[in-house]
Amino acid sequence: MKNEAGKRILMTLTRFDIGGAETHVLELSLELQRMGYYVVIASNGGVYEKNLAHAGIPHYKVPMHSKKPADVKKSLRLLKDIIRNENIEIVHAHGRIPAFLCGILNRKMDFTFVTTAHWVFDTSHGLKYITNWGQKVIAVSEDIKTYLIDNYHTNPSDIYVTINGIDTNKFSKETEFADIMEEFSLEQNTKKIVYISRMDSDRALVAFQLVEIVPELIKLNPDIEIVIVGGGDVFDELKKKADAVNNALGKRYIVLTGGRTDIYKFAALSDIFVGVSRSALEAMACEKPVIVAGNEGYIGIFDHDKLEVSIDTNFCCRGLEPSTPGTLLRDLKILLTNSAEENAGLGAYSRETILKNYSLSKMAGDCITMYNAALDEKKYDAAVLGYYGFSNSGDETLLYAMIENLKKEKKDMRLLVLSKNPKETEKLYGVHAINRYNIPKVISEIKKSRSFIFGGGSLIQDVTSDKSLWYYLYILKLALSAHLPVMLYANGIGPVNGEKNREKVREILNQVNLITLRDEDSLDEIKKMGVVNEALVTADPALTIDGIDSQCARKILMDTGISNNEKILGISIRNWKGCDGEFWDKLAKGLDEVCAKYGLTPLCIPLKHPEDIAISKTVASKMKAKSYVLERNCSAEEIVGIVGECQAVVAMRLHSMIYASAKCVPAIGISYDPKVSGFAKYIGTPHVIDVEKFNSQEFIQQAEDVFTHREEIENNLNQKIEEFKEKAGLTAKMAIKLIER
């Protein structure tokens, strides 16, 4: 076959006997082969080898089931030869030992290395430190993805989620099974309860429970047979118990088949199926009523109501109530006494669920998406720079909103964020992050990106310092030098006062590919600096954040000491040069009068931790009214939700005004920087006081105007906010087009 890039794949696993993971690998390999991939399997072998031989898929016997030093050494040598001789491009490991071995080889050999997490591993005794999840990992359920993040700190952007794909042609109610009826002397007119699993100590709990309750089941319906399929380390123990029950009842009610490869026939012959994971899904494909039960827990009779929890746990019941003989007996009695129509309805819904959610093509497609991401020499879709990792709520909100908006347009968006606190950034947002001050690392990593996004906020200004501006312009220049398409993402610009600074900004901005701005004042500023590049005014991405719901927000407020019936005046302030004790006295006096007049409880909402907390407490102490300070370091969604519970907001921090606008809450701006007054003008509010001209009386008058026309202001914001959200969404669409170009 033609050797297209990424088309030659080696699957590695411990054994190839009956089991959920093994069947997953078999079906995945067959489907990939049908799609034109060349697949090779390495394992210690097993019953499925003949399936591979029939399909023409090579299998190499490698003792990866063993931890003995001699076998480990042999496995490494054999795998190395296979990868070289078969010209393998992608190694896909399934299981801890295969992943460990392939990880060792990956350090020395040129291949792409990925893994699948089929189950949760023991992480005690240092085992987590020898577990290798490769460049990318695909989890077979959302709860396993969470397990990888929590236990191995795997970056969420490196985790893909798939399903156990089922061959719905092979697993069908039309499947012929007369030969196994004859082989095991099964009766024609009995109801058959089938259970399929490996008979190992960590898998066979429900098989033992089934055997235990057989005497009770035959009291209800003596015309039943229990067929238990699978072999393993507790098979002999189970057979001994089953023989004892059969002897006591004087008839063979329980049939143990041992290990089989024709699982599809047993699924098709069942009238009621009991099991978990892939076995349950295969029986569902055969339109059987299924009781989902296993060692991990108990879901029960699968129906519409059980769909969500079943999908969430990948039909493995992890974390749910344990299976007991009593619960199993209860649900079997229901299915045994149901009408034929009722059970047929359950079976039809089961088949429908498989066709919709568990196709082989989807499973293979998910893996191909992962393969392509791992193969891509460009590791990231975009590198993103902003004031991130400094515990500033406004800038963290921008990053959160930007990521959410970009992922709406491109679900598998791969981002690299330059952050002061990369570990925290990765944890919060599920992206890759590096230290923004590690310049050699920044240079090497942005070269692995398809594009460069200069994040929102007022980064291009020299009011804070020249040094800050020079840093941002330097990184922009690095991205341009790497020939990346560069975008300014809903930036606020200015003020830039130094003439040399203005010249440098003009030089850089005239080279970038796309400029989007958050307000008209920023557009005016770059025009005055001589920027001739086309620029578009969109909207601040933070305007798209809905925030947590009212109930959750009120819970946080109650934890702060504010009861549900209190009306809140939100206050977001910061230290600023020129804001001396007299300024804060005036503000406290104005806040007191407004709160007294309108029956409001003052709540200080710090947006930068810990800096804003101290000044918030200072102002609170100057007020006569009982006031509160939200000391908890809340997420962007939490802050937006809390602001939504306010009657009005006093906004010195720009993003407190943006949050208020997003929730259609009236705001009174205290402008310490043109960006505050610029946004107020953009959003259409006249209620802004310059920090240098602040006096209590004007503040009180502004508040009176707000509360007099509060409904009108809210309606006006409500009309505008949808337009702004649309513009913010447009920024993300433009970014994706730039990346794809």
Q: Which features would summarize this protein structure in a list?
A:
741 residues; eight-stranded parallel beta sheet; Rossmann fold; 17% strand; 28 helices; alpha/beta
Which secondary structure elements does this structure contain, and how are they paired or packed?
Layout: E1 8-13, H1 20-34, E2 38-43, H2 49-55, E3 59-61, H3 69-85, E4 90-94, H4 96-106, E5 112-117, E6 136-139, H5 142-152, E7 159-161, H6 178-183, E8 191-196, H7 205-220, E9 224-229, H8 235-249, E10 254-258, H9 263-269, E11 272-275, H10 277-285, E12 290-294, E13 297-301, H11 307-312, H12 325-337, H13 340-357, H14 360-375, E14 382-385, H15 393-409, E15 415-419, H16 422-429, E16 432-435, H17 439-446, E17 452-454, E18 457-460, H18 466-481, E19 486-493, H19 499-509, E20 514-517, H20 520-528, E21 535-537, H21 550-560, E22 567-572, H22 581-598, E23 600-604, H23 611-622, E24 628-629, H24 636-643, E25 646-651, H25 654-662, E26 667-671, H26 674-683, E27 688-690, H27 696-708, H28 710-740
Parallel strand pairs: 1-2, 1-4, 2-3, 4-5, 5-6, 6-7, 8-9, 8-11, 9-10, 11-12, 14-15, 14-17, 15-16, 17-19, 18-19, 19-20, 20-21, 22-23, 22-25, 23-24, 25-26, 26-27
Antiparallel strand pairs: 12-13
